[in-house]
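Researcher: We're teaching a course module on how sequence relates to structure. For the next exercise, students receive a sequence and then see the predicted structure as tokens, so they can try to spot secondary structure elements on their own. Here is the exercise chain.
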Amino acid sequence: MEPRNHTDGSEFLLLALTEDPELQPLLLGLFLSVYLITVLGNLLIILSVSSDAHLHTPMYFLLSSLSLADICISTTTVPKMLVNIQAQNQHISYTGCIAHLCFFLLFTGFENCLLTAMAYDRYVAICHPLMYTVVMTPRLCVLLILLSLLFSAGDALLHSLMVLRLTFCRDREIPHFFFELDQVIKLTCSDAFINIFLIFFVVDLIGGLTIFGIIFSYAQIVSSILRMSKTGGKYKAFSTCGSPLSVVSLFYGTGFGVYISSVVTDSSRKTAVASVMYTVVPQMLNPFIYSLRNSDMKGGFRKLIRRMPLL
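Model: And here is the predicted structure for the students to work with:
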């Protein structure tokens, strides 16, 4: 039978995390709680930064943008999974698949670029403190955000449009609870060489550049800190870059862990469970990482709470 293009309303099937009906209510409550914590925590950071004049600095401006990206990533993946669990229906339309894929690529790419911008911000602050206010101007911060959005939007649109040219076979089961580009391409019956080439090209170009920028920035930071003579100065410098470095390690560490798990295991369901680690967990933990040991953020939270009217 000839493969048909799925622009005719055909559906894809997302793999559930478990087939056990007794675990479905538990998963529903767990991921609903995680989603609410993620949205509330990141929203508090955005509101605190915007309402506290002391937090109107490049570092916290980029942090609030990262929180917005975290909310968008979670909103792209988790609500659909909650609906599927509640309705006991894992199917999604072809149009929904393309839209979901585009938004997921957009926001993950945006977060990737933001982490690089935050690493550069800490590099300038620690390695060139006297030039910080000259280099990290509000104009540059806005430019970094716009460039991050431009690159991520271009990447997302390019891959999404290239998926439209593919035809798919009867087996349309995706072994994830969300749409990942390489999993969608594996379902095609047509020649996907261009799509695969673009994936490797973009990953090597944009991904390689961002990872190199992050590694270079933090390597220079560590080298600069180790050359400091005062212990107090070293501790202060480490504390200012500790939170961004933790977020970077969590984001890339979980993603690399999922990639390794997909290589060493043949179980699609185990891979789907592992994918939760980099699509749900980092976005939930980022607000805690930035607030628990950050006195400025704690102060911003307290001021925000005091301004809230009592019900």
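Model: If you want an answer key for the exercise: The beta strands are 11-14, 91-93, 173-174. The longest helix spans residues 94-127.
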